[in-house]
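EI: anyone free to look at a 250-residue chain?
SC: sure, send it
EI:
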Amino acid sequence: MDKKQLIITTSWDDGHALDLRLAELLDKYSIKGTFYVPINNAEHPVMLPSELEVIAGRFEIGGHTVNHIYLNTLSEEDARYEVAECKTMLQDRLGRAVDAFCYPGGKYSQRDIRLVSDAGFLFGRTTRLLHISSAIETKLMDTTMQAFHHSSVTLTKHCLKAGFVLPIVQQLFFYKGNKNFPLLAEVLMNKIQSNGGVFHLWGHSWEIEEFGLWHDLELLLKAIAFNRDIAYMNNTDCWNALSASAAFKT
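SC: here you go
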């Protein structure tokens, strides 16, 4: 990937039926994305197979375990089942390869990273925020922001976890708009457009509905859409592009 190239990718978790509304919104602005779908989910209903087929006809589908359980709470045998079987079941339903995986709740251990790789997934997407670099960590894909109004405290915690000190000063504690994710996205996008990198937006359709965020989400999608200087990709295409660039540099 060229140093100044900008990639935008999106991902959407949990496989709720409202993902159909998300898909329509992404289509409206020609934004690509990956929908991470568990087979079952005790917290929220999962879309019907017919609904999954509709989304799969236009977007990438990724694995999200069989039962939407935090992998780091399970034995190795149970965790292996949750990871490997969700890939098998989705591939059987879709009739094509499923290469992307997302950790439920963003929870995982080093063991779980290995299990995801052993199952044949290319990477596991995390919920770590504020990553805009084109550099990738082995087997992990991080994100830039969630379609949700996070507080300064939450954003700062993500910075500290990743060792990002400067953003705390530049755009969190002193950035009045940080609770509004479209405004925060504007700050991050300006930085990426100057230096190159990846803007990775993620969220949950049920959460967007619950907190009345559809209008804010559309404002953001409209702002980032239809730019000839941007490469719009799903998660796997983004991963492959970044991996190819890293291999070229070495």
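EI: The chain has a mean pLDDT of 90.
SC: 👍
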